[in-house]
């Protein structure tokens, strides 16, 4: 099958959060499974710092009364062709934000449609989040190109209809309120990045005002759990961490703890409970809950906490102030740093993820992969990936709480803190997390099933289409 992935983020070239992880990993796996998968993304100003891009474009086109050119490169560490849409609007060094964000990504989506019509024609365009939402609208006119739209984050829905009318001069094509709604209506299939979140978004609590539409299209919607790039994120080979280790050599892991404590200026102590968080600092991630409990937790215990993240100014300031009160015990790194994130996964004892909502969550899987025990709120994909620690039955991979309440989060942290002091149980807990299979292979099979179904092909005979504990799909 010929499949074009279109997205605003592609790891390791352009990543802000988990969508970049998905688009940087899934095409590699699908290609290995024999499909001609290619990626289309913006040519951001920083791309040449990350990869080699040929000087000459391969194609030029027009969209929304502007011309653009396409450069072809390769996704690092793979043979996946990467098409880069070049236009001055993407010269800015930030992926998101700015006054022209609505125009920029609407133009990007329209450029991708032009590319698919005129240069490389795929059978399926796999679109990711609102930035690509206009593609399914356009492709409705092209019965020979089908569309799959994946919701990574319903909280961001793109420009509203009146603005789209203004920008594209085509008022007739959509009924939806905004780009995300249009994509949901017009795409042939909709996937959501975890089965639990796929069900949750049909309720007012999680639907972000689109719950009616999402219930209406439940017949073409399903949840397919994300995986992680287990080659890149492998504690046995990761070049960014100071000491490589496996589930069988966990003793080596403590050296990473020392290294990261030194790196961010905490008191070095392997017996101290070290928690961390790597996150966008936004409401979704439960930062308000964290702010309500972390001060007390640090003052009642001898534990340590490292935060790595950027986002809302208010949260950045609050966290910064807290860190200044706990010198040597709390560190606040207000930056985006891929290498440090890996060292935190590899060196911390526990990873905090008290999300208000979580479509899937990549960070908790990365933390388990590196032997860092997740403490999570049981919502969305966190339900599907983390199970509560049950020492009596030697089961579970983390600490879970249900209600979005500071006391519940606090209690989970206390339990983890206590658990950490029972070394054998803790080690077994770490090992269970590390031995989970979060590889993309299984989810990729689910996507192939969706693609084949869309093209009217019979399901592939594949042993991996058997279900297992990690990949579950919830067909609407
Ligand atoms: N300051 C920083 N420095 C370095 N690395 C940082 C960082 N801040 C975040 N990251 C990295 O970004 C990724 C975060 O991914 P998540 O899936 O956990 O959340 P996100 O909300 O961004 O993704 C959205 O899309 C994904 C993909 O579908 C869903 O899993 C998720 O629920 C949804 O909210 C991780 O790889 C993490 O290490």
TrEMBL record:
The keyword Glycosyltransferase applies. Pathway: Glycan biosynthesis; glycogen biosynthesis. One of its GO terms (biological process) is glycogen biosynthetic process. Its EC number is 2.4.1.21. The gene is glgA. This is Glycogen synthase. Residues 270-407 form the Glycosyl transferase family domain. Synthesizes alpha-1,4-glucan chains using ADP-glucose. Belongs to the glycosyltransferase 1 family. Bacterial/plant glycogen synthase subfamily. The lineage of its organism: Bacteria, Bacillati, Cyanobacteriota, Cyanophyceae, Coleofasciculales. Keywords: Glycogen biosynthesis, Glycosyltransferase, Transferase. CDD domains: GT5_Glycogen_synthase_DULL1-like. It catalyses: [(1->4)-alpha-D-glucosyl](n) + ADP-alpha-D-glucose = [(1->4)-alpha-D-glucosyl](n+1) + ADP + H(+). Gene3D superfamilies: Glycogen Phosphorylase B (3.40.50.2000).
């Amino acid at each position: 099958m010929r499949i074009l992935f279109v997205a605003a983020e592609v790891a390791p070239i352009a990543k802000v959060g988990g969508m970049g992880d998905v688009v940087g990993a899934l095409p590699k796996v699908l290609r290995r499974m024999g499909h001609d998968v290619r990626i289309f993304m913006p040519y951001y100003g920083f791309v040449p710092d990350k990869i080699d891009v040929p000087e000459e474009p391969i194609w030029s086109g027009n969209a929304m009364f502007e011309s653009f050119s396409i450069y072809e490169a390769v996704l690092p560490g793979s043979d996946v062709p990467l098409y880069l849409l070049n236009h001055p609007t993407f010269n800015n060094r930030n992926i998101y934000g700015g006054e022209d964000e609505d125009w920029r990504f609407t133009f990007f989506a329209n450029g991708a449609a032009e590319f698919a019509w005129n240069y490389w024609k795929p059978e399926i365009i796999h679109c990711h989040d609102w930035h690509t939402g206009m593609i399914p609208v356009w492709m409705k006119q092209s019965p020979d190109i089908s569309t799959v739209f994946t919701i990574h984050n319903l909280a961001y829905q793109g420009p509203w209809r009146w603005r789209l009318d203004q920008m594209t001069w085509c008022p007739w094509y959509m009924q939806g309120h905004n780009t995300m709604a249009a994509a949901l209506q017009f795409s042939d299939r909709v996937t959501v990045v975890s089965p639990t979140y796929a069900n949750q978004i049909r309720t007012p609590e999680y639907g972000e005002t689109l719950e009616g539409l999402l219930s209406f299209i439940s017949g073409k919607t399903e949840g397919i759990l994300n995986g992680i790039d287990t080659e890149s994120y492998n504690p046995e080979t990761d070049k960014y961490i100071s000491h490589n280790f496996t589930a069988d050599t966990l003793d080596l892991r403590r050296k990473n703890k020392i290294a990261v404590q030194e790196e961010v200026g905490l008191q070095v102590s392997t017996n101290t409970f070290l928690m961390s968080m790597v996150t966008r600092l936004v409401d979704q991630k439960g930062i308000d809950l964290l702010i309500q409990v972390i001060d007390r937790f640090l003052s009642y215990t001898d534990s340590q906490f490292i935060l790595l993240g950027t986002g809302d100014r208010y949260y950045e300031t609050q966290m910064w102030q807290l860190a200044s009160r706990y010198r040597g015990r709390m560190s606040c790194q207000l930056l985006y740093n891929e290498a440090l994130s890996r060292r935190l996964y590899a060196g911390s004892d526990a990873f905090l993820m008290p999300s208000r909502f979580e479509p899937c969550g990549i960070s908790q899987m990365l933390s388990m992969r590196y032997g860092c025990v997740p403490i999570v709120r049981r919502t969305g994909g966190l339900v599907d990936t983390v199970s509560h620690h049950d020492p009596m039955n030697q089961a579970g991979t983390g600490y879970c709480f249900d209600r979005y309440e500071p006391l519940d989060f606090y209690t989970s942290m206390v339990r983890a803190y206590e658990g950490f002091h029972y070394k054998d149980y803790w080690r077994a807990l770490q090992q269970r997390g590390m031995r989970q299979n979060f590889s993309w292979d299984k989810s990729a099979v689910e996507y192939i099933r969706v693609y084949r179904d869309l093209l009217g092909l019979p399901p592939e005979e594949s042993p991996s289409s058997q279900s297992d504990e990690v990949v579950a799909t919830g067909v609407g």
